[in-house]
Structure formats: C-alpha cells, structure tokens
Amino acid sequence: MKVLILGKKGIVVDDIQNHLQMQNVELFGGTGIEDVRSVFSEQKIDHVIMGAGIELDKRLQIIKEIYERSESTTVHMKDFASGPNGMLPFVRAVITGLQK
Predict the structure, then answer these.
(1) In what order do the strands lie in the sheet with 74-77?
(2) What is the pLDDT of residues 10-25, one digit of tens each?
(3) Is 56 in contact with 85 (CB distance < 8 Å)?
C-alpha cells in the first residue's frame, strides 16, 4: 500500500514517517500540490491522508488534482479540532482501517 501524507509543515510529515512503521505500507510525504504532482508522476498512490493545517482552498485544489490523476486513489482528511498532535493517531487509524 502506498500512502501520501500531506501536512502544512514538513516536520509533521517527517514525524509521522519516523513514528509509523507498518508492514506493507510505503509512506510518501508532502506539503502541497507540487508534491502531489511530483509523487503521482513517479508512483501509483493508493491513499492520500491530508492534515487540516493546509488552507481549505488549497485542500480543495489538491483533491481536484488527485482525482484528475487517479481513478483509484482515496482521500482522507483530518479534522481541524484535534490539532497537529492528532495527526499521527489519525494517520495510524486510517491506515489500520484500510489494511483490514
């Protein structure tokens, strides 16, 4: 399973990549639409998990870009209320659920 993690700051994405070790999961990171374009041009991404720190208009542009590039990628968006500390548990829960 190939998962692209998008967050407002690279450090949040780096933290997830360092703390989330799951079998059969390859993580990619990014902070915006250019990273989406780059990763999608090189990989077939199964799932995108996006943090709430990215501005809403940019999130919508990213979603449009993803669905224009893939008919099989799913997009999962984190809530704003749980803050940056909620990102790792959210990513873990989504990936665990998708593995079942």
Answers:
(1) 26-30, 2-6, 47-50, 74-77
(2) 667 778 878 888 889 9
(3) no
